[in-house]
Amino acid sequence: MKPKLLQVKDLHVHFKTYAGIVQAVRGVSFELYEGETLAIVGESGSGKSVTSNALMKLIPQPPGIYAGGEILFNGRDIIPLSDKEMAKIRGNDIAMIFQDPMTSLNPTMKIGKQITEVILQHKAASRSDAKERAMELLNLVGIPFPEKRYKQYPHELSGGMRQRIVIAIALAANPKLLIADEPTTALDVTIQAQILELMKDIQKRSNTSIIFITHDLGVVANVADRVAVMYAGQIVEYGTVNEIFYNPKHPYTWGLLGSMPDLSNSSDELLRTIPGSPPNLIHPPVGDAFAPRNEFAMAIDYEAEPPMFQVSPTHFAKTWLLHPDAPKIDVPQVVQQRIDRYVKEGEA
Amino acid sequence: MTEQKLRDGAFDIVGMHREEQEQLSSKPVSFWKEVLYRFKQNKLAVCGLIVLIIIALMAIIVPEVSQYKYSDQLGVYNQPPSAEHWFGTDDLGRDIFVRIWAGARISLFIGITAALIDVIIGVIWGSIAGLAGGRTDNIMMRIADVLTAVPYLLVVIILIVVMEPGLVPMIIALCITGWVNMARIVRGEVMSIKNQEYVLAARTLGAGTAHLIRKHLIPNALGAILVTMTLTVPAAIFTEAFLSYLGLGVPAPRASWGTMASEGNKALMSYPWRLFFPAFFISLTIFAFNAVGDGLRDALDPKLRK
Amino acid sequence: MLQKKILEVNGLKQYFGSASNPIKAVDDISFYVYEGETLGLVGESGSGKSTTGRSIIRLYDVTGGDIHFKGQNIAAIKSRKDLKHFNKEMQMIFQDPYASLNPRMTASEIITEGFDIHGMYKNKKERAEKVAELLEAVGLNRMHASRYAHEFSGGQRQRIGIARALSLDPSFIIADEPISALDVSIQAQVVNLLKQIQRERNLTYLFIAHDLSMVKYISDRIAVMYRGKIVEIGPADDIYNTPRHPYTKSLLSAVPQPDPLSERTRTRIPYVHEETDGDMIAHEVSTDHYVFATSEQLARWQL
Predict the structure, then answer these.
(1) Whole-complex ipTM
(2) Facing B198 at nearest CB: one of C99, C118, C144
(3) Which residues have C-beta within 8 Å of that of residue A144, sequence separation ≥ 6?
(4) Which chain C residues contact residue A279 at CB under 8 A?
(5) Domains and CATH numbers, chain C
(6) What are B171-205's pLDDT values in tens digits?
(7) A230-347 matches A4-224 in CATH topology
(8) Using one digit for the tens of pLDDT, what is the confidence trace for C62-90?
(9) Domain ABC transporter, which positions (chain A) (predicted)?
(10) Do B22 and C84 touch (CB under 8 A)?
(11) Candidates 3.60.60.10, 3.40.50.9100, 3.40.50.300, 3.40.50.720; correct CATH number of A4-224?
């Protein structure tokens, strides 16, 4: 097994609001190995972005509160660290890419300067060395005519090019961990495909670990080695990408997979959906938070929170359906048929 | 954990709870309720508001119920503060406590007038320019630019040449130049609101201009208008005090904080309280208005909204 | 099959900016929509797909071309009264469930806005009943009428937007990326809802989107836009299975599928735009399936 870079243990993050305390992250645990990509997938309000911001300690306090748990980066808990110590880790060891490239770039500064600034900040180098490194980075992220781009301002570039610049800046200090929060959501599909290719390529070369936050299952299937599915502030299913897509165990994961149309869906039949909306995390439901929207909910789901059941050494799911006494429920037909077809096509 | 004893029937499928699927947070919260909540969280702003209420009440009550009138010359000159005269008396033997609250009336009057002018001229000017856009907008905003280029002080001085000094020239000058800032802010707000999807939606429903202004533009620009207003008021109060200090304001024997400070300044070495009280209330009022304005702006800031 | 054309667009042009150097957001496009069908309009940002929708519903004054809706050229309507009548017939659903609802209004106020404008349902009780009916038609609770827009989740807000669009009982709805800002499970809910109300109310949709898999699912026919022009239009299955234009091929190859095995081997087909001097016309390559190209290009793309 590869060495562990990051371990999150029972993380809780709360926010104080007018209506009450929002329990945005309610006991999240996962680990990340060197050189792998973990995708955290979930709907808005599931706590996936709060989790990733917490890893960078970017939760504003107040209204945010780290209400418990540990974030061990290279074995050291970063929650108690001061802002100054954290600033050293950010950029150097952990870098982040956000959804909107325009907000992470300074509109009044030339691209070249923005990159060299970061290089100089993290490492003692001469200006000319920094420039050389910046050109290297621009080449690495696939920017044509880097000499010309170096002297341009962010608004002169397209959205895809801007996101490449953001990635170049994130890579400037050779971080061990790259957190990408919906980095392709604001981009067109063809540009998205290019950015995903780029990120995989970079990972292959530099062995960076990536945490990829997204709500798009297609993107997850494309980039991830392992997947954590989040719902209502908790990880409900966790496993390798093949386990999640071909052997899903949690009814929420079934719902997610079933609600995506694909070629086999006839336009005459309705999509399988998850009815309703995610719960209010000011008063999280008792028991399994997904129960009210789960057609397979059992009496116990409304009484007690399910533990994480182990499916395989790498696959876990938080649902009472995996309890030995629970009735055997099959994966919904539409989802199972699609999985069978994918696997068959994959083998062919 | 999975070994615990579970009751019979725990694993019966009971299905979804539809009524919980579309639940909303228990209490309905209107936008303004939330604003009020956030405003209350801001201690400084709440203090400012309380101070303003007290000043306003005192200004209304004290000159009416006091045994002295602001212009009464009591024959006791330059008395220090005492039980008889709480803030002392001035060189003509007038009670400073009463004069302070009489002066507060003038300060608040000019402040409120400035706010009204802001709303009446500035808001209308800005919304028409923002809504119309194009050439109309261009002409209206260039006129506004020209008006800001004329210094307020100069307008007041020119007006005093042709009329008596006092509140009238100040208000006329405010009408000429005081609303431009508000007009600019409202124009910006209107420009951004009119391209919002909910305004487009109203247009596809067939809404006319009057409907758009009433239902969408005003309610959504109200926050920015309020904030600008709370910051216009202290500026006007300060300007009045400043002009009165220079002798361009209200004439004797009427009391204005500016005139009182000007007179008190002459006697600073011997009777410091004569300067202290008017100066203190000018600062306190302006500070309180600014605190309230800041608090209001933070409370309205949509970026903090969840 | 219904083959009555409810909307016909001929040579629509929508330019912005100065007359001497205009930005050609929509540059001479023609298409039609059959009554009761869904036409998907796909393209990337800047392709002019949203502008097309907004021009048709008269949010912009069109630069050129005709838009015939139920036989009337709506591009030429000038009077407010005629426009108001047209507004009842054609409605729009917007992309951003946050920006498309006025945050200072309650759900009921949003839904009844059209009634106020057109002076309908003046009786209070009747109006409340209509609001409740519309809320329930989009799967919301009638108790929600008095709640403010910001209290709802994204999916719920989008449903309020749909209820607003339905309030005037239109026959044609332009859905401008109605699901792209929503979560996956909510997208499916909204798409199902749109399909269901289409069936119940016999609606025609122009469905604008960039998500090809959803468009394929909801549309009967698909039009692909690139830089202000429709490059290919045809039945959804034809576009998906036998795309002809290289841009359509490139677009299709870029969509990730929820299938890790195929994702590992999927290769993206890059698209390089070629400027041509030849006459660009719409060639019918199979029934109802048109490709916009020169004859030389079409022959080359055949391979």
Answers:
(1) 0.87
(2) C99
(3) none
(4) none
(5) 5-301 (3.40.50.300)
(6) 888 888 888 989 999 999 999 998 889 999 999 99
(7) yes
(8) 999 999 999 899 888 888 888 888 999 99
(9) 6-257
(10) no
(11) 3.40.50.300
